[in-house]
Amino acid sequence: MDGDRFHLILTAGGKPVMHGWWGMQPTAEHRYLSLMGSWGSAEGSRIVLTEHADDSERVVAIWPQDS
User: What is the rounded distance in angstroms from the CA atom of residue 12 to the CA atom of residue 19?
Assistant: First the structure.
């Protein structure tokens, strides 16, 4: 499976703090939920999980959710 399919990025104050790539959606979603637990209440933090396939990008999840 493609190891560069799901991309997760955490930003704080508009600056990247960490990111990673996973080939399997359950693994990427687990890491997303883990970051929500660690960073979800930090002011100015944003967590975005995207899927990259067939030359396109799809947002899978964003925290906090846009209003």
Answer: 12
* Residue 37: burial class (beta carbons within 10 Å; 0-12, 13-18, 19+): exposed
pLDDT in tens, 11-64: 999 999 999 999 999 999 999 999 999 998 899 999 999 999 988 999 999 999
Helices (H) and strands (E) in the chain, counts: 1, 4
Q: Tell me the C-alpha distance between 4 and 53, whole Å.
A: 9
Structure tokens at 48: 């975005």
Q: Is the pTM of this model over 0.70?
A: yes
Cis ω on the peptide bond leading into residue 64 (within 30° of 0)? Answer: yes
